[in-house]
What we know:
CATH topology of the largest domain: Immunoglobulin-like
CATH class of the largest domain: Mainly Beta
Distance between the termini: 34 Å
Radius of gyration: 24 Å
Largest sheet: 6 strands, antiparallel
CATH architecture of the largest domain: Sandwich
Order of helices and strands: HHHEEEHEEEEEEEEEEEEEEEEEEE
Structural class: mainly beta
Shape: globular
Amino acid sequence: RANNGVSTLDVLKIRKHILDEKPLPIPYAQIAADVNHSGEITTLDIILIRRVILAIDEEFANVPSWRFLPEYALGSQFTFQPFLDFNPFTAVWQAPDGERHYRAADSPISKSYLDDIELNLLNPDVTIAPTWSFRAIKSGDVNFNADVEGLLSEGGNGYAFSTIPHACLQTGQTATVLVKAQTTEDIDAYQMGFTFDKDAIEIIGVNQGDIAPFTLDNFGFNQLADGEIRTLWIDEKGDPIKFENNLKTLFKINIKAIEAVCDIGSVIEIEDNVLAGIFLDTEEAVVPMTLKLELIPGIIRHKLEQVYPNPTGTSISFQVELGEAATVSAQVFDQFGNYLTTSGSYGAGEQTIVFNNTSSLQQGTLSYVITAGSETFTGNIIKLQ
C-alpha cells in the first residue's frame, strides 16, 4: 500500500526540510520524500503525499511504493561519484554496467541506481549475503516506520468527540457542525479519520473555521459512500495553530438530516481505522486534545465543490453547486492586498467561476471568498508563479 507508514508527521518533516528548518537525513529520507521523482524536494511532493494519506490517490504516480538500493553498490569495489551521502539526487553509481544516476532518464544506460541489476551466477560473490541484499526505501515515509512484516498497528491516540447539547435536527433540516479543539500547545500538524452514519445524515460539504490556511484539498471524500471522511492540516509556511487553551473551530461540516438527529456525537465519530488521529506540536510530539462537536441549525442551499488547480499558475476555477438561482460573487487576493473580483447571476445546478489571468497576484498563499446568496465559503490556495 502506498500509504503504508505515511502520515502527517512525514509531511511535517518534509515541510521543515523545504523551509531549511531541519534537513532530512541523507540519503534515504530524501529519496523517500521525492515522490514526484523530480530530483528535488518541493511543495509538490507534500501535495502528492497528502493525496495518498487522504486516500484520494491509491498509489504514487511517478514512483513505486518501494524503491531498492543494492547493498553491494555501497561496497568499496563500486563507488558513488559524487557521493551518495552528499546528495542522492546528484550521486552517480559507477556500476559494473556503466554510470547510473538517480533518474534513469539521466543515465547513459537508461537505468538508475534504484533500478534492477543483473548478477553473474558464475561469480563467487553470488554466494555472499550482500550480493542479494537491498536497502528498501518506502516512498513518502521519511521517518522510516513502514510496516514490513505486518506486525505494526496504526492505532490512534485515544481522541474522541464530546458533544455540546443541541435541539433535535428534524428530517430534511440542514445544519452546520463545528469541529472544535482545545489545547495549551501550539499545533504544527494534525490528521483525523471520521465515520458518520450515512443513514442518519448526508454530508453536504465543508467550510473554513478559525484555522488558516484552509483548503478543500485537506479532505478526502473518496469513501463518502462508505460513511468515511479523512482530513489533515499543515501550514506550508510553517506557522502553527496557537490555541492558548482556547476552544477553536478547526473546520465546519454542512449536513442534511435523513432522520431525526438528537445527538450529533452518536452520528459523527473519530475512527482510527479510517485514519489514525494525530495532533503534533512544534517538537513533533503527539499531544492530548479536547475535541468537541457543536451543531448549529441553519438553511444550507449551496455548496463549494472544488477549487482548482491547487497549486495554481495562471488561472483559478471555482466549482459551485447551487440549490436555487443565486447571485454569486468571488474574490481572490494575495497577502499584499492585490485582488481579483467577479460577480454574476447563475441558475440552479453546477456552475463554474473562472479567473483566467492571475498575473496581478503575487506568488504564495492566496485567499478566496465565495458568496452564493447568503452563504459564504472561504479558504486558501497556493500560487507558484
